[in-house]
Predict the 3D structure of the following.
Amino acid sequence: MDRYEEYKKLLKTMMSEYRYRHSLGVADEARKLAERYGADVEKATVAGLLHDIMKDQPPKVQLQTIEDSGIILTPVEQASQKLWHAIAGAGYVRMKLGIRDPEIFDAILYHTTGRDGMSRLEKVLYVADYTSCDRQYEGVEHMRELAKISLEDAMREGLRFTIQELSGLERTIHPNTIFAYNELVCDKLRQQRDSAV
């Protein structure tokens, strides 16, 4: 049994059928985006498969995994239970699955918040999570079209969507999300200025 099959078998024991199908969809989309944008295809597939490994675990289990990983939550992270699965997931794949690759760890860790200075693999996973075949939110087709044209444009749109949604619900917004958005907007403005010269 290859490691992908081993991971799939494990995922089936840890998540709902819906979440399992989503994980397969994100892995497939991450592989395609990695091929398109020059990221490591194998790492993208593994990160896609495992990115939500802790999502269906109870909050208490997520917090225990985070603590066992030696990760200390910031006040914003403590207040945002929706973020815990990504942090716990990164810790789980390192501790329990022995995946020591820092690129895979970071891709899983930041797949919900983003951050400034994201690697190509991190961007691939972030966008794949928004554009996988199972996603059915208003605007998903626009996101899929952007992902075909520019990874950075798709990232910026995903971050804008997240910021609007969270602020509309009066929820905390992780600083990493703001940093990632600002960096991408500044990069776009710089490119526009450079092309106008």
Remarks:
- The chain has a mean pLDDT of 96.
- Residues 3-196 form a domain with the Hypothetical protein af1432 fold (CATH 1.10.3210.10).
